[in-house]
Design brief:
It is a single chain. By secondary structure, this protein is of the alpha/beta class. The protein has a single domain (about 5-115, about 135-275), classed as 3-Layer(aba) Sandwich (Aldehyde Dehydrogenase, Chain A, domain 1), CATH 3.40.605. Helix content is about 50%, strand content about 20%. The chain has nine helices and twelve strands. Helix 8 links the parallel strand 11 (about 220-225) and strand 12. The longest helix is centred in the N-terminal third of the chain and has 30 residues, at about 60-90.
Amino acid sequence: MNTTEHWINGSYVPAGGRTAPVTNPATGKVTAEVALASVEDGHAAVAAAKAAFPAWRDLSLTRRTQILFAFRELLNARKGELAAIITSEHGKVLDDALGEVSRGQEVVEFACGMPHLMKGSYTENASTKVDIHSVRQALGPVAIISPFNFPAMVPMWFFPLAIAAGNTVILKPSEKVPTAANWMAELWKEAGLPDGVFNVLHGDKVAVDTLLTHPDVKAVSFVGSTPIAQYVYETATAHGKRVQALGGAKNHMIVLPDADLDLAADAAINAGFGSA
């Protein structure tokens, strides 16, 4: 049985303790085990991100975006591989998985414009003899906690922008769908990303709590259920972190009076159960 390991500082770190089963939803068969991080594993991932931050932050925007473009080209050429991984662990059909990868790639492409997005501003004489300057600067190590339903798209909502802006990343994917995150980590390395800039920490609540409370993690982005979003927000803000916690997005719809009700009903059912 293969074990999906953590990706820390540019290489795999063997699972040293607890594991959990990874299941193919189409068959119910256990296909692998995934490492569940200890507190020490979490500290190692954060330490790698912290050590890589100064050099990555100081690298020119031109060099950073060159790596983004390389990642984009590799992803575009090999997105079928990632889609197949998503199908094998999540269960959505291959066309749906390919669509997910394409939606994530849109954010990668947006992040390729980071030299423009990072521009500050300058206002002369905003008040009498008062000029105003603003600058945008990287924060440091940031954490991403992503759900099972979009193993590639949701992480790609966050990490291309965080990395392009000069931050380093620790991604904690759902333990139900761990392999996509590792595949993307390997792709980043192939694109030329320095070791430690993108790390993958697998696990459960132990891994999450380590990231939410670690003093070197500067910000947290989360997508998942409303109760966990509230827990993430309360815990991380109490430890002085910037937090983006997105919860409760379960196929909500607004149906207006002039809607085609048959079409709306069909869309609602497919949104919730299209892969069943």
